[in-house]
Design a protein that fits this description.
Strand content: 5-15%
Order of helices and strands: EHEHEHEHEHEHHEEEHEH
Number of domains: 1
Number of strands: 10
Oligomer: single chain
Radius of gyration: 18 Å
CATH superfamily: Divalent-metal-dependent TIM barrel enzymes
Distance between the termini: 22 Å
CATH class: Alpha Beta
CATH architecture: Alpha-Beta Barrel
Length: 303
């Protein structure tokens, strides 16, 4: 697996690849604008080219943009749905400008319209978006949910049904978040449990549709439906729970992005988490862990 993390862009888009490399990333995920805004300022052409050049010069193996938190492409409310679709088209165009591999997004919530209707509206939203961005190369990746409220996508079947209703499924795929997986009730903490989960994933969704991972430990219990990220080895999945995933040859060329809590000490928590993950690989030395607990920082997604 290509290990990486979500990197902030407060100091500018062109600096993010070098920041990622400095802490040991082989891949990076970014926001292209504030995740709390419907529309962000346009990306300057020189900033976009600077980012693309930095990705090349730093030798990053994968890149992604994470979409904002306001969009709900499954909403039954017409005004919200129209605004979400417009914003999502803009997100894709921004991602295309940056030359990233993927746009990772939350499938949304049906808001009591029902699971099947929510999936239908979500697929329709994606089909509309693809029509408006014809010729695009950025792949949109549905992120599995923790199963909170009326959210869509907590099961492999949900995700497969969305992909099955797309006019051009080659433009879409899936990101698996380990914290969300655990919170939805799927246990991967032993080789046996992990193997059974991957067998079910392949049967119900298809391993080929998984294009990225979010590597997050979990603060909340198995099946809690609570989306609470924790640093690797400090949560209920535990460091050993990541070993089978990291050593699975199916994911050798798949990016895995950290979205774990940060401190105010310049990504030191990410560097420690990356070291912990690499210590699980064959022949690696065990990683030392910082003693203090890391609170969530605004620059790190926790959803």
């Amino acid at each position: 697996m290509w290990l990486g993390a979500h990197i902030g862009i407060a100091d500018g888009l062109p600096g993010a690849p070098a920041t990622g490399r400095r802490i040991g990333c082989e891949a990076i995920q970014i926001f292209s604008k504030s995740p709390q805004m419907w529309a962000g300022p346009p990306i300057a052409p020189d900033a976009a080219e600077g980012f693309r050049a930095a990705v090349r010069s730093e030798g990053l193996k994968a890149t992604a943009v994470h979409h904002g938190y306001l969009v709900n492409l499954a909403s039954p409310k017409k005004a919200m749905l129209a605004r979400s679709r417009k914003t999502f088209v803009d997100e894709i165009r921004r991602a295309e400008m940056l030359g990233v591999d993927a746009l990772i997004f939350h499938p949304g919530a049906h808001l009591d319209s029902g699971r099947e209707e929510g999936i239908r509206v979500l697929a329709e939203s994606l089909n509309t978006t693809f029509a408006e961005t014809a010729g695009g190369t950025v792949r949109v990746l549905l992120e599995n949910s923790a199963g909170q409220g009326t959210s869509i996508g907590s099961s492999f079947v949900d995700l497969a049904e969305v992909l099955g209703q797309l006019d051009d499924p080659s433009r879409a795929g899936v990101t698996i978040d380990t914290c969300h997986l655990f919170a939805s009730g799927v246990d991967i903490r032993t080789p046996e449990l992990y193997g059974a989960t991957m067998d079910r994933l392949d049967r119900e969704l298809g391993c080929d549709n998984v294009r990225a991972f979010h590597l997050n430990d979990a603060k909340a219990d198995l099946g809690s439906h609570l989306d609470r990220h924790e640093n690797i080895g400090k949560g209920l999945i535990g460091a050993e729970g990541f070993r089978p995933l990291l050593n699975d040859p199916r994911w050798s060329s798949t990016p895995g992005y950290l979205e774990t809590p940060l401190t105010d000490d310049d990504y030191a928590a990410y560097a420690a988490d990356l070291a912990t993950l690499r210590s699980l690989l064959p022949g690696a030395e065990p990683a030392a862990r910082p003693r203090r607990k890391a609170p969530r920082a605004a620059g790190s997604p926790n959803t």
